Each structure stands twice: as C-alpha cells, then as structure tokens.
C-alpha cells in the first residue's frame, strides 16, 4: 500500500515536472532568446521627452529634392513611369550624363522661408529632408566629396537654411540620409573580393564622416531617417553600424533613429533575431498603413506617403491615381488612430518652386487642420471598437475621444460602442462646439449619435468627453444573468 502511494506520488511529481519543463520550453521558443550583441538595445517604447514629442507630431512632411528633379522622370524625350529619383539606375542615362546634372542645379526660386511657411500653414509638426539620396548628391557642402551643392552653380548650402526656416516655424527637422551611394566608387552591393572589402572599408569611413558632419553642422536636427540599407554589403556590417549608431547617439543625446539603419549579426533588419525592433520607431510603413493596432506591436511608427502611386522626387508627369485631400486626410486619421504619424511627400522642382498640385493639397489639408488639429496632435489609439464611419483618436493624457468621420451612413446615425465603464458625458462638433449631441443609448455600452445634417463637404470631427464610472446598474440594457 505504502509502496503504491509512493509510486503514485512519484508519477504525479514527474508529470508536474514534465509539465513545467514543457511550459518553459514553449516560453523559450516563443521568446527566442538568442544572445545578440547587435540586436535591439531596448525593448518597448522610448520614454524620454524627445520621443514623446515625436510621438505627438501626428502630421509630417517629407521632401525629396536633388539632381533627379531636373530630368523629372524624362530622358531624351522619353517618359519613364518609375520613381523619378531612381532614373540613374535605369541605364537610360549614363552615369556621367547623370552626374553632370550638378552643373545645371541652380534653384534660383528657392526660398526656405516660403517652404517652411507653407508647411506651417499645412499643420505639419516635423519635416524629413533628403540631405543625400541614392545618387550621392549632397544638398550640404560636405567636406568628404566634391559631389555637393557647393560645386553646383547655386553653390550655397540648402540644408542649413531649411533647418533654420522650419525651426523658426516651430517645425522639427529630421535628416534623410541614404547609405547606398551610387556616386562613390567605393560603394558595393556585395563584397566578393579583397578589393571590394578594402573599398567598402573606405566607404564605411566616408559614411561615418558624413553622418558625424551632418550632426555637427545641424545639431538641432531631431533625428536621422535612413534609407538604402538593404544591400548585403551593409547588412553584414552589424558591428560597425551598431557602434556608429552608439557614437551618433552619444554625440547627439535624444537623437531619433528609425528601424531601417542597421541589421543584427544574423542579417535581420528592422526586427532582430529575437523579434525586437531595432531603433526608435518602425520605419517599414512605406506607402502602406497598418489595419489594426496589433500590427504595430506597441511600437512607435510613421507612414511615409506619396501623392501619386510611387513618385518621391519631382516628376513632370504624374501618372495613375492622384490622391485627393480627403483621401490623404483619411490616411492621416487612420495613422494617428493606430499610434503612428503620417508624413506626406513633396518633390520640389529643380528651380526650388513647388508644383501647383502640392501647393493646393498643402492649402486644403491646412484648412482642415485649422479646424480639426486638436484631434490630430497628441493623439493616440482610443481602445474603442472601430466603426465604418471612420476613426477614433484619443487625446493623450485626458478623457477626450475624437470621432473622425469620413463615411456618413444614410441613416445619419453614428454607432458608438464604448469600452466597459466609459460613459459619454458630452458630445459636440469640434468645429462648432455649440452643436451638441445627446447620444441615444442602444445597449449597455453602445449608442447612436444622430447627426443633425445630411450633407457634408469634408470629413469632420465630433468630440466625446468621457468619464470613467460603473453606471449602468439601472440600465434597461443590462445583460441578462445566465
Ligand atoms: C526608398 C527609396 O528608394 C525611395 O526613392 C524613397 O526615398 C523612399 C522614401 O524610400 O524606397 C523604399 C524603401 C523601403 C521600402 C520601399 C521603398 N520598403 O521597406 O518597402
């Protein structure tokens, strides 16, 4: 009998232990604890003031400007439909002919102050400017190459005046920098020989020099937006890129760097081999927007968007669908509702002026922002179940929820399902706070907001002021006890 009890106890003990081991193994597999030297150095969002400011921007502007704005998608009378800033890579133009565009680059109509004023009127809080795109042409007079604005007929630095003018308008500046450089003879896509390796070592030093130069010249810039980091040559430089990132951060406390700068030692980009994001925000949302809050994994992120399908630099002919102001506003609302920022691209002309289509969009977005900016700045995911009429945005830190309405139902009734214990104490138009709504309760946590008019020219915003309480005990919509 005693033996039997001991045996049973032993079996039970073994089972419990086996279950524990299994649980541990499952956990280990899910967490993938690979030891990494050059993976993510932080898990979860940054908590400092610089990043909090970045998170609150909501709306940004991207500027793609360089030599490619001269051919603008055309070469010898032929129009090409790829992104205009890639023309040098299409072999329709020789490298020498392309690089000779430097002798034509003379933006006599350029006025940094007027660009910044346009951006301010549009309501943007930050701007990302191409200091050097893949073609290698530098918009600042870099000491490390002759292929810069200093050797164009214009001669003068473009980045300095832009940084100053935007900052004067209260707009933060991020410097775009392409690692891939089609002009530098030391650039390699892959390293296949000793010669390649020697050349690429020089290229790495050149890259480091230029980045430190940018941070020295423009110390007020808030961050760096990296591009051209996908080739094997760079992906295999985990240790170098990691130490350069550390060096830049030490030189420039608070510097914001996206997930597109470096790979880990296994060549994993954006997310390291353990699945943790590298850098301060996810940089993969390029002309696409996440659908659900789960898609962003709690990370900071921004979406960069073109007006036509895929043109960043100035292109004479815009083909295909051109996004409208309301479409872009909807993208903005969607991004902010999912904890991201929305960055709209502008491709200035070679003379420094902006194309009419972009000026009109900036003006119309600005008019909408003028009334509705309160719903965009400092906005975050609201935890309200998404409805077909549009997007919810919560004001960080206070009990205000904004309903950004893009599709008005024929019934004129906007359905709202509140999270448990959230009570709507007040509902009104953001553009006309005197216009109040009394929500009609339709369930324990759901109601209709009945609109008072039928036709709307533009998307609009309704503010919900909410309180936290355990009401509903006397509600006729109380759930049946089962
Ligand atoms: C890059 C550039 O090649 C392009 O010219 C432009 O500057 C854009 C903002 O960035 O293009 C990319 C980069 C990354 C992806 C797609 C296009 N991506 O991650 O899907």
Summarize the structure in short.
The chain is an alpha/beta fold and 482 residues long. It has helices spanning 2-31, 49-56, 95-99, 112-122, 159-168, 194-217, 232-235, 238-251, 325-337, 356-372, and strands at residues 59-63, 74-75, 78-79, 126-132, 172-178, 223-227, 256-257, 301-305, 340-346, 379-380, 390-395, 400-405, 413-417, 422-429, 440-443, 446-450, 460-468.
Explain how this protein is built.
With 482 residues, the protein is an alpha/beta fold. The protein folds into 2 domains: 49-376, Glycosidases (TIM Barrel); 382-468, Immunoglobulin-like. Helices cover 28% and strands 18% of the residues. The chain is built from 10 helices and 17 strands. The chain has helices at residues 2-31, 49-56, 95-99, 112-122, 159-168, 194-217, 232-235, 238-251, 325-337, 356-372; strands at residues 59-63, 74-75, 78-79, 126-132, 172-178, 223-227, 256-257, 301-305, 340-346, 379-380, 390-395, 400-405, 413-417, 422-429, 440-443, 446-450, 460-468. The strands form 4 sheets. The chain has a 7-stranded parallel sheet with strand order 7-6-5-4-1-9-8, sandwiched between helices. A hairpin with a 2-residue loop joins strand 2 and strand 3. Helix 9 (325-337) packs across helix 10 (356-372). The longest helix is centred in the first third of the chain and has 30 residues, at 2-31. The protein starts with a helix and ends in a 14-residue tail after the last strand. Residues 1-29 have low confidence and may be disordered.
Please tally the β strands and state the result.
17
Helical content class: 25-40%
Which ligands accompany this protein? 4-nitrophenyl 6-deoxy-alpha-L-galactopyranoside
State the low-pLDDT regions, or none. 1-29
Class of secondary structure makeup: alpha/beta
Q: Count the domains.
A: 2
The run of helices and strands is HHEEEHHEHEHEHHEEHEHEEEEEEEE
Mind telling me the CATH superfamily name of the largest domain? Glycosidases
Report how far apart the termini are: 47 Å
Q: Write down the overall mean pLDDT.
A: 92
Strand share of the residues? 15-25%
């Amino acid at each position: 009998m005693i033996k039997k009890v001991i045996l049973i106890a032993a079996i039970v003990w073994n089972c419990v232990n086996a279950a524990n081991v299994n649980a541990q193994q499952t956990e280990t597999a899910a967490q993938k604890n690979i030891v990494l030297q050059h993976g993510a150095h932080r898990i979860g969002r940054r908590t400092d003031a610089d990043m909090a400011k970045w998170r609150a921007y909501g709306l940004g502007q991207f500027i793609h400007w360089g030599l490619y704005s001269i051919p603008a998608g055309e070469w010898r009378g032929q129009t090409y439909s790829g992104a205009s800033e890639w023309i040098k890579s299409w072999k329709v133009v020789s490298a020498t002919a392309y690089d000779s565009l430097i002798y034509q680059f003379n933006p006599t109509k350029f006025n940094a102050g007027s660009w910044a004023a346009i951006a301010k009127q549009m309501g943007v809080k930050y701007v990302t400017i191409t200091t050097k795109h893949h073609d290698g042409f530098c918009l600042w007079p870099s000491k490390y190459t002759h292929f810069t604005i200093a050797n164009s007929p214009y001669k003068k630095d473009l980045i300095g005046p832009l940084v100053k003018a935007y900052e004067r308008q209260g707009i933060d500046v991020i410097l775009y920098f392409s690692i891939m450089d089609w002009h530098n003879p030391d650039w390699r896509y892959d390293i296949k020989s000793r010669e390649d390796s020697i050349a690429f070592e020089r290229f790495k030093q050149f890259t480091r020099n230029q980045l430190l130069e940018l941070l020295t010249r423009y110390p007020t810039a808030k961050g760096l937006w990296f591009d051209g980091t996908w080739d094997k040559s760079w992906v295999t430089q985990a240790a170098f890129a990691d130490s350069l990132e550390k060096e830049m951060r030490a030189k420039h406390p608070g510097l914001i760097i996206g997930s597109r700068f470096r790979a880990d030692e296994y060549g994993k980009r954006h997310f390291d081999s353990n699945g943790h994001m590298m850098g301060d925000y996810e940089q993969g949302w390029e002309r696409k927007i996440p659908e659900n809050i789960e898609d962003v994994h709690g990370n900071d992120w921004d979406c960069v968007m073109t007006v036509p399908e895929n043109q960043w630099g100035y292109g004479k002919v815009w083909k295909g669908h051109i996004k409208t102001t309301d479409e872009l506003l909807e993208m903005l609302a969607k991004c902010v509702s999912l904890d991201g920022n929305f960055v709209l691209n502008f491709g200035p002309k070679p003379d420094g002026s902006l194309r009419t289509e972009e000026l009109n969009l900036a003006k119309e977005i600005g008019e909408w922002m003028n009334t509705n900016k309160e719903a965009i700045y400092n906005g975050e995911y609201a935890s309200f179940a998404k409805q077909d009429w549009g997007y919810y945005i919560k004001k960080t830190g206070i009990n205000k929820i904004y309903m950004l309405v893009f599709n008005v139902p024929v019934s004129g009734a906007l359905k709202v399902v509140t999270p448990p214990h959230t009570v709507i104490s007040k509902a009104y138009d953001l553009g006309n706070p005197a216009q109040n709504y009394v929500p009609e309760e339709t369930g324990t946590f759901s109601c209709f907001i009945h609109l008072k008019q039928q036709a709307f020219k533009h998307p609009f915003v309704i503010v919900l002021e909410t309180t936290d309480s355990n009401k509903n005990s006397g509600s006729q919509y109380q759930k049946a006890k089962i």
